[in-house]
Amino acid sequence: MRESSLSSRQAVLLLGVVVIIWGTTWPVNKAILHYMSPIWSTAIRSCIGTVVLLVLCLARGRLILPRRGDLPVVLSVGLLHMTAYSILGNVGMQHVAAGRSVVLAYTTPMWVAPCARLFLGEAFTLRRAIGTVFGLLGLVLIFNPLAFDWGNHASVLGNGLILLGAMFWAASILYVRGHRWIGQPFDLLVWQALTASCVLVPCAWLFEGPPQFELNAQVVGLQLYSASFGIAIAYWAINKVNQALPAMSTSLGLLGVPVFGIVCSSLALGEPLEFSLVASMALIIIGIAIGALPERRAAATTS
User: Fold this and answer.
1) Does residue 159 contact residue 143 with C-beta atoms inside 8 Å?
2) Which among 136, 147, 201, 275 would be 20 to 30 A from 65, CA to CA?
3) What DSSP line would sit under 226-271, residue for residue?
4) Beta-carbon count within 10 A of 44 CB
């Protein structure tokens, strides 16, 4: 069964929906941590997202077992992105404001550029080098070594875990870039989410014990939103967008996520919009944008 293609306008609108969903997911996940522990929160969200993806696949006749050649990418995304990145982000967010955490998490493209040169042989151009420098300046500003409370070990740990999670996501992106696809990316999503769920539940039980949380309408609604929209719908939508728009356009469009995430965190959670946070976000986004832009090629024709 073939996917129906989107027009460029439809794809841009759908990309905007993804930005809104993922931007609002950060304060939602932060709010969930008031009711349950971080790994169980991640595990439950993953399980719900898996069920929603399964329903979508069955409804569209797209429940297909992954081919053997696609198993590495199932494990890569399922373990590095959906498991390691999610756990580290949720644990770190206990000690870091949601606005700051979303900026740190979306430094991922900055790590991809130099690593793609090392592991995939992609050119590390002057433009990408300049973009990386801007991104690193943003990180220096957000941490502000002279003002950062290095004695607050919880804060240091939280920021470090989120950055480590961003690096795991970058590793997943690098593998996905180099993978030779057999099946369609959407057809593998449910298996990636299932892989993550099968690892997250035992990890939650091992490190946090049996699930203990206050079950009320608010936490149920937050988890349903985060899982159904943040995992199932957003991943389905971004796959549709990737098929209709150039990769550069998609990556630049997703830079709206940390911007929208900071605004939502300020409005929903009352987090202050500090100048250093806004300035560091601007530097990181400029750096990623510069690194993602194509190199200008000299004209091949002569007069």
Assistant:
1) yes
2) 201
3) HHIIIIIIHHHHHHHHHHHS-HHHHHHHTTHHHHHHHHHHHHHH--
4) 22
105-132: average pLDDT: 76
Name the residue with tokens 């409370």.
149
Q: How many C-beta neighbours within 10 Å does residue 85 have?
A: 26
Q: Two tokens at 274?
A: 């500090």
- Confidence check: pLDDT of 200 > 70: yes
- Answer yes or no: are the C-beta atoms of 103 and 281 closer than 8 Å: yes
Confidence (pLDDT) at 303: 40
Short-list 24, 188, 164, 181, CA closest to 104 = 164
Q: Which residue type is seen at 248?
A: M
Concatenated DSSP letters of 149-190: -TT-HHHHHHHHHHHHHHHHHHHHHHHHHH----S-HHHHHH
Q: Is the pLDDT of residue 299 over 50?
A: no
Alpha-carbon 193 to chain mean position: 14
What residues have CB less than 8 Å from 228, skipping those under 6 apart?
A: 48, 49, 52
Q: What is the DSSP letter of 294?
A: P
Nearest Cα neighbor of 50 from 42, 219, 105, 76 is 42
**What average pLDDT does range 181-203 have in this prediction?**
92
Which one, of 170, 183, 18, lies nearest residue 104 by Cα? 170
pTM of structure: 0.81
Predicted confidence (pLDDT) at residue 302 exceeds the cutoff of 50:
no
Which residue is listed with tokens 């008031």? Answer: 34
Q: Which amino acid is at 270?
A: G
- The whole-number pLDDT of residue 301 equals 42
